[in-house]
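Please fill in the sequence for the structure shown.

STRUCTURE ENCODING:
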């Protein structure tokens, strides 16, 4: 199982980024996918979750209305569109999946929101 995030970077407050997570090594369309983030000195927190077919999504209160999780089960990729970014969104963002026996994580991609 491999999860590879990309798309992070430095963006000004109010800007946008789209993160991608390319998955391999498992039947992607059969599992929920999640995005987490971890800011310096803080615990890792759940940002968004998407169901197998992408019909159901859930978000942390702090990102509702600004972030959108989506997936492409042909490309085996999950996305996180982040709009109206704030300084408090600065963190390393990870994608993750729970394959019942264990959960898997990518290496993370840094998102920095600063002027």
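FILLED IN BY: designer on duty
SEQUENCE:
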């Amino acid at each position: 199982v491999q999860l590879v995030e990309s798309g992070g970077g430095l963006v000004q407050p109010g800007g946008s980024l789209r993160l991608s997570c390319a998955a391999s090594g498992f039947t992607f369309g059969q599992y929920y996918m999640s995005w987490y983030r971890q800011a310096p000195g803080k615990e890792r927190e759940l940002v968004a979750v998407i169901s197998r077919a992408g019909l159901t999504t859930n978000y942390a209160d702090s990102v509702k209305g600004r972030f959108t999780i989506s997936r492409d089960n042909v490309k085996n990729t999950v996305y996180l569109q982040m709009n109206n970014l704030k300084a408090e969104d600065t963190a390393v963002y990870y994608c993750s999946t729970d394959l019942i026996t264990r959960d898997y994580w990518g290496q993370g991609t840094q998102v920095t929101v600063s002027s």
